[in-house]
Specification:
545 residues; alpha/beta; Urease, subunit C, domain 1; Diaminopimelate Epimerase, Chain A, domain 1; TIM Barrel; 3 domains; six-stranded mixed β-sheet; 17 helices; globular; binds zinc ion
Amino acid sequence: MTTTVYRNATVFIGDGRPAPAQALAVTDGRLVAVGEDRTVAAIAGEGARDVDLGGAFVTPGITESHAHMLMLGEALDKVGLRDCGSVAEVQDRLRSAYARNPQTPRIQGVSWRFDIFAPGQRPTAAMLDAVVDDVPVILDANDLHSAWVNSAALEAMGITDDTPNPVGGEIVRDDEGHATGFLLETAAVQYAWAYAEAVAGETDRDRYLDNAFSAYLRTGVTAATDMAFGPGDLSVFIRRLERDGRLPFPVTAHWMLTATGDRTADLAQVAEVLRAREEIARRWGEKWLSIVGVKFILDGVIDACTAAMRDPYANGEAPGPIWEREFALPIAVACDAEGLQLAMHAIGDEASTIALDMVEACVQVNGPRSSRRPRVEHLEYVADDTIARMAALGVTASMQPVHCDPAILDNWKAQLGEPRSEAGFPWHKFRAAGVPIALGTDAPTAPHESFDNLFIATTARSVLEPARDAYRPERVFSPAEALEALTFGGARATGREHEFGSLQAGHRANLVVWDFDPRCTEPAQLIGADAALTLVDGEVAHRRA
Ligand SMILES: [Zn+2]
């Protein structure tokens, strides 16, 4: 068995230890020594392969704590429009995408921004027909709440003057009643995305998964927690496992539960999760894919005034949660009794209160258990008493710095109104209370790049518009704290901290080599930085060209 020694580096060990290390040794996919050059060389012994890292910075692999692997991979397959500043730029982008691939049966785009339209102007099919009129064009808005489509797409989706608006959505129409090419909320879901889903084949979905793995490896991710797993994802992952017997890096998955308003139907979903968990574990063990838990979407988002708040929004709206306690608590207890970890999407302060009630109910009914690892996702506006309860119960705060890029907060602040608009994303309070923290990106709702996420975590400034003022900079993480939450924090959140997440002898050799140490560099250098080398189980999974 060959041992490889990586030396002449600055090694960030990753579980809060300040121990200085310059080298590590890897045998058969595992770390066998981490420490000073001379000590590691002595343990590795004669004949070890020697790699001089030239003073580079080494961290444990990043755990993407809130991933949507297939959705990200699909988004990466689409024409990116986030940086288009005008309708003309969107048209140019589509024209060249079509010219590059003239045989394509359709063109999909993602992340166009509302500010490219003049005041009072809305997206129309005619704007797109002007550049592509013979194949469907479907462009998702950057908030993924609406779609802009051309006339060929309207026809392919079967939308006519007589098609009614779906509940909770709108097919925007002109004065004569003709659809104009703009689909809002459930109309986007039920027409644009249902169509895209229906026409995508197995090879498309396999490619989406490949896209996600390679994009993540480029940015130093060597483990991910998929936060909305379902039957569609399962079949793609199973195909991959049947083909390769492994994944490019380990994925832990939370199965998405749907609030049905019927306890029997809720519980039937738990049975489905258990069947899937058992099938994966029986056929492939837990090394690469493991269904560790379930996901509850307890509320919506602040931008659309659908997050559940204790007090009404600035406009007076006061929506309730998606899961009421009478349904959420019993199903949480049933999942917990089966050893499934609970992940609760809770953006508003009322939703996170319900999330903690769910965890308390589990402890009361099923007793204390150190492997429980419940977690709350997002926590954009949260009450101090909730933070104290999270600390007492050991509930992980899973947060996404890219969601509070100052460039996307204007509407968010307006909906909350003062003083709540100045008290969002209180990372410093979680740290002070001793709440376990895991950082992720929730891509594709936000950019997936790890060091862009690190930039916002450590500066509270904008990646999208660097000239913007920081949002509440007293909240920021030190670079070491943020790196730890991106690596060790994510592994601990799913109970895998003894396997990876810090660089210690015995752990899987999942690590990343970076060009610079973010603890002592100008933060702007973080934006757009990628990994020079990413190792998974000691093997090169990505090397910068
Ligand atoms: Zn998500």
